[in-house]
Backbone:
């Protein structure tokens, strides 16, 4: 899971560069081939590290290529209703979570692990069919600017260099907006995103196993818990658009409340003892998680502005990739030190990571406060400037 998430996020800049160089359809096709190859290579695995590289890193990289290509293509085709189109497109991840959890359980029961790998590899290969259907719209100025804004983090200016090191040095020098590093609000947002990224994968990894070991829930029913997460995740993503459009609250406040609700639900889920209570928690976590994912780019745009969104989003993806790399191993460590508690070994993990998610939401609430302080400071500066100008005018008139 760690290698899968790390490849999915860290592979984003690489996918951006390849899309700029070879086109969206080619990168999506390559992603399908990589994910299929990673699943087939897992058949030859003899240790956990083999699976980490094949099923984790290689498949994660392939899915990252397909995801980025599909989202950029959808965004390129739509203008007036672009936000709605993209929000509907990203709901596909929720449908996947809803369908594949019980499907994987079914495949493992009837076809064992090797058969499951073969079938999942075939499903991943079907992505090549849809990749061939991707088309970029007719070239015009707005489309070129849009794709440039999305793919800009990996675009290199100047003459083409044959040495990769020279390319990377030029990219670091020319493309990274170093002013973002000194933006206090952006740094705070990255820290909050890092804490959220650490904690968000724990329920996906351990919820089903915890339900089976702690409460004796049947494996078939436990698998449906992740389906509840996926279904409610779709509702959360669509709801976030309505809340933002209706201006029920500020975008940062909506994002923060979702993080706090997800964290509290995760921490208090240790009192879940029946399938219905687990289902309620799964639905809550999925719903709030959908809001978090959907509001992420909107909040980032509010913080840095449209002109800096490409560089800021690249940095944010890197931060989240590091969080995904750190979170699951730490969760495993907490479970390991609680192993003597038997079925209750998961409780400390869920409490700690739930509180980390709450901390992420509370940090986000500092962003409106910082913005208010900044506005008040600027207002006082303008008032002082106007006062000085009036005094100077009085002196001149005398």
Residues:
């Amino acid at each position: 899971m760690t290698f899968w998430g790390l490849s999915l996020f860290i592979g984003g800049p690489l996918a951006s560069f390849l899309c700029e160089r070879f086109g969206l359809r080619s990168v999506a096709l390559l992603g399908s081939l990589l994910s299929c190859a990673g699943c087939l290579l897992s058949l030859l695995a003899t240790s956990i590290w083999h699976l980490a590289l094949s099923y984790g890193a290689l498949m994660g990289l392939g899915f990252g290529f397909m995801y980025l290509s599909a989202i950029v293509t959808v965004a390129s085709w739509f203008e007036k209703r672009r936000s709605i189109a993209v929000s509907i497109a990203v709901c596909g991840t929720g449908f996947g979570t809803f369908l594949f959890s019980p499907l994987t359980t079914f495949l493992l029961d009837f076809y064992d692990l090797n058969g499951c790998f073969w079938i999942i590899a075939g499903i991943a290969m079907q992505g090549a069919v849809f990749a061939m259907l991707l088309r970029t719209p007719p070239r015009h100025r707005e489309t070129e600017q849009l794709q440039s804004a999305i793919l800009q983090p990996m675009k290199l200016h100047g003459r083409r260099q044959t040495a990769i090191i020279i390319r990377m040095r030029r990219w670091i020098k020319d493309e990274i907006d170093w002013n973002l590093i000194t933006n206090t609000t952006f740094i705070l947002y990255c820290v909050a995103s890092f804490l959220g990224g650490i904690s968000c994968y724990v329920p996906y990894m351990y919820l089903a196993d915890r339900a089976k070991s702690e409460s004796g829930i049947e494996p078939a029913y436990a698998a449906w818990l992740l389906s509840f997460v996926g279904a409610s995740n779709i509702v959360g993503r669509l709801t976030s658009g309505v809340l933002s459009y209706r201006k029920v609250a500020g975008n940062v406040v909506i994002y923060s409340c979702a993080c706090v609700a997800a964290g509290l639900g995760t921490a208090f889920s240790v009192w879940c003892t029946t399938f219905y209570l687990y289902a309620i928690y799964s639905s809550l976590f999925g719903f709030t998680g959908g809001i978090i994912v959907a509001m992420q780019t909107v909040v980032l745009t509010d913080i840095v502005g449209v002109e800096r969104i490409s560089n800021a989003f690249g940095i944010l993806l890197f931060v989240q990739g590091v969080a995904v790399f750190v979170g699951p191993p730490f969760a495993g460590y907490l479970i390991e030190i609680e192993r003597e508690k038997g079925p209750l070994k998961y409780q400390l993990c869920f409490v700690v990571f739930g509180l980390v998610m709450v901390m992420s939401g509370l940090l986000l609430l500092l962003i409106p406060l910082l913005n208010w302080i900044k506005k008040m400071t600027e207002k006082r500066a303008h008032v002082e400037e106007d006062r000085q100008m009036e005094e100077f005018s009085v002196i001149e008139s005398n």
User: Anything to note?
Assistant: The mean pLDDT is 78. Residues 92-125 form the longest helix (34 residues). The CA atoms of residues 16 and 196 lie 24 Å apart. The two ends are 77 Å apart (CA to CA).
